[in-house]
Predict the structure of Cyclic nucleotide-binding domain-containing protein.
Amino acid sequence: MSTQQNGKGQQGQNDMTTQRRKNEANLRVALQYYSSYGKLNDDHSLEQVSAGLASLEFMKRNCPEGTKLEDFCIQSGQYFEYEQYKYGDIIFHYGDIGDKVYVILKGEVAVLVPRSESEIEGEREEISLAKQPFDYEMFWKNKKPIKQIHIEVLLAQTNSNVYFQNNVCMFKKVFQFYSGQSFGDVALISDKPRTASILVTSDQIFLISMCKKDFKILCEKSVLEMNQTLDYFVKLFPNVGRMQITKFIQFFHKIDFPPQQLLWREGEQIKFFVLIYKGRVEIKQSQQPLYQVSDYSFIGHEEILEGMQFRQYTCKTLDNTTLYFMEYEDFNSARKNAPDIVKLLIEKAKLMTSYLEQRKDEVKKGQIYVEPLILPVERRLVKDMFVIKSPRKNEIRSNQPKCLSYFDITKFNKSKAKPNNINTQQSISEDLFFSKEKNIKTTRSPSNFTQKISPINKQMKNILMKKFKLNFKFNALNSFQISACKSVYEFSSKSRFKTEPSIDN
């Protein structure tokens, strides 16, 4: 296992070196101009550096929607200021107030965070047993990586009790930034003190910086998205401190995928894991669907935590899906800063692994159609519920699914329609007429059964009845034409039947 991890680590180092050199080539012109002038104000200089700045992930991430990237780079380029440091310098310290964001044009820095009390006490006990006089580099030789020893020696030379006390280093390296990358924006967005120290590890480093005020004006989109992301993860990890969450989520990237998009195939090399923000994905193994997962679900982290090198299953999206993804190397760095979050991920990984094994057993036994982890929500539209069907022959209507008859539709439309003065007067006259007829027929006097209606009254009765029947047929036909549309497209075009789209959980 260690051989595989070393091989994978070497491959990651080679990829990082290749990317760093590519970024330095893209930023060569920008470095030339900023190192010569310190700050750029004229349009010609800004146009010359805009192509290089456009290659920066920092600029792509903060460019407002609807704005061309090169135009945004020209606008933002005038707010950058050139800075330069040498090997061993600390650009800012842990706990400082954040006042700038930095973009590296050339060089490397190490990200340092305080070590845990248990690590410090362990080293103190080892050092107390060492022979005197104590040689720091010789004592830790073959016990720590050479790069780590060099960093600790640099911190010892700062003559600060914050970084080095009694031959014990109080900080450790958790990550590094190189040419083309940015750092320092987390403290500006959250308005919190710096969560790490930045140490220069290359012979020299050349940067451009932007002050907090200009950053918040130009990069409003990034500030808003970062705050929304932080609120989302605070709800996801309610028992974890905001500072620890901030350190963890800075390595996450948000991305959208269409339906039926493969995230990875079974047998591929593990490069990242994902958190489903919104949408649904399906897990398959040997072309056999196992289960589906939806919002707030982590996928792929269990393989990283178990130290696997290749994917054990295939993962693809089922709906329009928004994901947060974190690369393999970034996760190894982030897990050192967020032990509480890692514990929760380990618990989720155990549940996912046990469920996966259970599904495998069910598939082997032929129980393929067992209930999945999350069922898709049934989408029932209005047009599906208002289909008018005639009753089948030789079947009782009450035993069939409930349908709307013509009379039901007419009655419904009449109940929702506003009263009309003419119809009101007509209904009053009809009520008076039928109430008069009722009185004639239900009176107790025997003579009333035999009394004759005058010719005028009989003529009036016929006129009213014809008028009533014609009006009833007209209203019924008119209502049916409004409600019972001839096609689905006609039906969906009626504004009063519009509904919000259904959303899968």
Summary: The chain has three domains: 18-219, 251-364, 382-497. Residues 418 and 424 are 11 Å apart (CA to CA).
